Amino acid sequence: MHISATPFGNPYARNRSNIAEVSLGRSGLRVLVESRPKATGESLGLEIHFEVARGFRYLDEGDLLAYWQSEAFAQDHCLFEILSGGWLDQELQHAGMLTTTEAVGTFREWFICTSNGCMNVLSADEPLVRIFHDL
C-alpha cells in the first residue's frame, strides 16, 4: 500500500531524537519528543498535544520499514499528517476493526517519527505543538 503524507508544522531535526514521554489524561494525549541535534548539542523538546485522541500506537522505527521505503517522510519533520495508506487505512481493511471510528468518519491520522520510537495517532483535530529549548 502506498503511503501519502504531508509534513505538519515547522521543520524539526529527527537525528538523535526519541519520544521521551507519553501521557494520556483528562486534558488529552501529550507526546514529548526530545532531540539533540549534532550541530548545536543543545537539548530541544517538541510537545505535541492532541485534545481528543481516538487511538494511538507506539512502535520502534525499525518496525515501520514500509513507512521509510515509501519516502513520504523524507522531509526533516517529526510530525506528519498521513493522508492515505497508513495505520488507519490498514486497520479499516480488517472486518470489525475501528467500526465506531469509521462510522464517525471525521478522524485524521498523524505520525510522530523520531530516530527511535514512532507513534500513529487518530484525532479529529490538529495537534497543538510547542517547542522547548534546553530541556
Plain-language structure description:
There is one protein chain. The protein has 135 residues and is mainly beta. It has one domain (4-133). The protein is 13% helix and 44% strand. It contains three helices and nine strands; from the N terminus they run E-E-E-E-E-H-E-H-H-E-E-E. It has a five-stranded antiparallel beta sheet with strand order 1-6-7-8-5. A hairpin with a 2-residue loop joins strand 2 (17-25) and strand 3. The longest helix is centred in the middle third of the chain and has 6 residues, at 87-92. The relative contact order is 0.30.
Shape: globular
Instruction: List the helices and strands in order.
Output: EEEEEHEHHEEE
Terminal CA distance: 38 Å
Strand order of the largest sheet: 1-6-7-8-5
Biggest sheet record: 5 strands, antiparallel
Query: Helices and strands: which structural class?
Result: mainly beta
- The low-confidence runs, each spanning 5 or more residues with pLDDT under 50, are none
Mean pLDDT: 84
Radius of gyration: 15 Å
Number of helices: 3
Assign a percent range to the helix content: 10-25%
Number of domains: 1
Counting DSSP E segments of at least 2 residues, the number of strands comes to: 9
Q: What portion of residues belong to β-strands?
A: 35-45%
